[in-house]
Design brief:
Order of helices and strands: EHEHEEEEHHEHHEHHEHEHHEHEE
Helix content: 40-55%
Strand content: 15-25%
Number of strands: 13
Strand order of the largest sheet: 3-4-7-8-9-10-11-12
Largest sheet: 8 strands, mixed, barrel
Number of helices: 12
Structural class: alpha/beta
Radius of gyration: 21 Å
Distance between the termini: 51 Å
Amino acid sequence: HVGCSMGIAVFPEHGETLEELLKHADIAMYRAKDSGIEYSVFDSEWSPYSRERLALEAELREAVAEDRLILAYQPVFRVADGSRAGVEALVRWPREGEEVPAAELVSLAEESDLIRSLDRFVLRRALRDFPGIASRADGDLELSVNLSPASLHQRGLTAALQGLLEETGVDPSRVVLEVTESAALRNPGASHRTLRELHEIGIRIAMDDFGSGFASVTYLRNMPFRRLKIDRSLVREIGTSSRGEQLIQGTILLGQSLGMEIVAEGVETEEQLEWLRDRGCDLVQGFLLGRPERSS
């Protein structure tokens, strides 16, 4: 059974040029797809697609094309001895003297269908930067990069990554791709195939933001995840919520029983760090131990 999602834009109400009409029809198509309906007609009153928003999208498109985005690297530390285990690549967009918040940047990229281009930029730049970062560190480091649902389900991802790894000389075993719960569960069959392909070429896979969604234990067991990242929203509950602490402890035990490393995000206090150390958490990242550093 084959279906389709259709977006409609009408001249001249929704645009007086071909570019505007195609853009608004594309927006309406994604609106239909997200809503689970067959078609949608563009509405100029949709707040996310105001003229200001569209202008910002155009700026982002130019910034990606002209290589004006930058990366910052947040260190990841081993809980046992405090040594640096790796870095996570984070994209930044300097605009008019300020940085666009990361959440807004990703949301804008997803809504404007630029997220795949943004992912490719981050992967390419991070893999090129990594040899220099690793050479300045004591011991072996790992590079973590976030992967969006759109990129995870894009054909040719594994081949493209293999090409980048060969070009930059980075050992795939030192690369960790972070995939959110929602990305992995959006299309479990396709996700499993892609993640298995990535695993087979030596890349490690982490489930990101665990605790913010509804991941099934079955998927955790069957998909090739080697690392589980506890969402910062749960980490904040250490010392303030016994129920939250029980959830974190249960997550740590679950991950360990499946042979996974456990990473806690957003660690900002000594109390949180000590609590995680006592429960056997493997790795942590957060402002307490290290803030993101821009690539030179």
